[in-house]
């Protein structure tokens, strides 16, 4: 990058006083390396170094917030976004990063308030509309979420992320044909979208076309591997399908690959534990299921199976406590977020 462009980047930053000098070249090098990082933890670390090299580049803090969210370090993600806003309270990137972090933390009231501030500044901001639609869906306002995504697509018909999320809403609301249309729309805009192939697999699975579902899950896996992305969902979805077909050994193998790619996925550990239970490996199943429950205490499925295992082991008190927890969680189970 030329020196003139780097100087322009520094000049474009908010006009504030910073105690530290600004090494724009070093900052840009760190930022470029961050965007090539193989995982979110490394990306977040490099973005911090990029900002420390040039504190005037407040947007780097917002980028770091997103990376921390992807690394499941949600409180730190919120802190990074708030740090950006402390330097520039009107920074739209900082506001959206804060809203995203709050969404991950399920602090619903604060999400709404932060989005209101962002949308007052820019009513048609694509990033703000996307987060608002996700927020609306997660608090149970699926009709409002659908309308927000439709508005976003009317403003930007080529926004494949909005089409993907609209497809997710349709799928979760059991409007499978509508969902398929959106995922196919995504593939016209982004032919190598592993997420679209994965979700088309879910749609075919819902229609009972299991071979087509497997084919699409495998395509999603292949594309994610080619793009060097640790994407666990198609492995987990394949494991779920294989379990329902009675293929526990293959299901366990798929769940293992899912857990390897996302060691924070409660669902992957649940599916692996369920497969191990069907294979008669009770001790291993218990470990996997306990890991699942520890990753997400509000995830009901592993609790039910754990209660059965505890009961079979003769630990009736623990079985009773776990079953009661299952019933409590099941009543207030949140929507699935992807």
Tags for this entry?
disordered N terminus, 75% helix, Serine Threonine Protein Phosphatase 5, Tetratricopeptide repeat, 19 helices, 0% strand, 338 residues, mainly alpha
How would you explain this protein's 3D organization?
The chain is an all-alpha fold. It has three domains: 19-123, Tetratricopeptide repeat domain (Serine Threonine Protein Phosphatase 5, Tetratricopeptide repeat, Alpha Horseshoe); 140-231, Serine Threonine Protein Phosphatase 5, Tetratricopeptide repeat, CATH 1.25.40.10; 249-338, Tetratricopeptide repeat domain (Serine Threonine Protein Phosphatase 5, Tetratricopeptide repeat, Alpha Horseshoe), CATH 1.25.40.10. The chain is built from 19 helices and no strands. The chain has helices spanning 3-12, 24-35, 40-53, 59-70, 74-87, 92-104, 108-121, 126-138, 142-155, 160-172, 176-189, 194-206, 210-226, 233-244, 248-261, 266-278, 282-295, 301-312, 316-331.
Q: What are the SSEs and their pairings?
A:
Layout (H helix, E strand, L loop, with lengths): L2 H10 L11 H12 L4 H14 L5 H12 L3 H14 L4 H13 L3 H14 L4 H13 L3 H14 L4 H13 L3 H14 L4 H13 L3 H17 L6 H12 L3 H14 L4 H13 L3 H14 L5 H12 L3 H16 L7
Helix pairs in contact: 2-3, 3-4, 4-5, 4-6, 5-6, 6-7, 6-8, 7-8, 8-9, 9-10, 10-11, 10-12, 11-12, 12-13, 12-14, 13-14, 14-15, 14-16, 15-16, 16-17, 17-18, 18-19
What level of helicity do the residues show?
over 70%
Q: Given this structure, which CATH class of the largest domain is correct? A: Mainly Alpha
Structural class label: mainly alpha
Strand content: under 5%
CATH architecture of the largest domain: Alpha Horseshoe
Give the tally of structural domains: 3
What is the CATH H-level superfamily of the largest domain? Tetratricopeptide repeat domain
Distance between the termini: 36 Å
The Cα radius of gyration reads 22 Å
Count of DSSP H/I helices = 19
The mean pLDDT is: 92
Query: How many DSSP E strands?
Result: 0
SSE topology string? HHHHHHHHHHHHHHHHHHH
Biggest sheet, in brief?
A: none
CATH topology of the largest domain: Serine Threonine Protein Phosphatase 5, Tetratricopeptide repeat
What are the low-pLDDT stretches, counting only 5+ consecutive residues below 50?
A: 1-18
Described by the principal axes of the CA atoms, the overall outline is globular
